[in-house]
Design a protein that fits this description.
Elements lengths: L1 H10 L5 H17 L14 E2 L8 E7 L5 E3 L2 E3 L4 H11 L4 E6 L5 H13 L5 E4 L1 E2 L2
Amino acid sequence: MLKRKRRTDDDSDVNVTPLLDIVFIMLIFFIVTATFIKEPGVDVLRPDADTAEEQRLVSILVAIDSENRVWINRQETPLEGVRSAVERLRRENPRGSAVIQSDGSAHSEYLVEVLEQIRAAGVQDVVAVSIRKS
């Protein structure tokens, strides 16, 4: 009688190995297909514009804050290091574009200098962003 009872206990176990396989496959699928949002690392108060358009497929995001500091990938970057940082990001995604978010109180000379550095790094599709007027 005891032998029979043990066999039924062993038969009632649930095998979760296939379930774990499916969960890991789904996790890998979502990681591979996810689009990661790039942020410059600082909040920028962008000026208003009548001709603002939404940009997609941006691989390089550069921000200039109100104190004229340049931020790329959440790291403050000196003005002289913008070109090398953009070249490094360009190698990751050669077909990507660049977006410059400049604070409304930042000096325009920094915007122009950053734009020149980005173009010197080989990125020709560069956009300066603003907020659309309502």
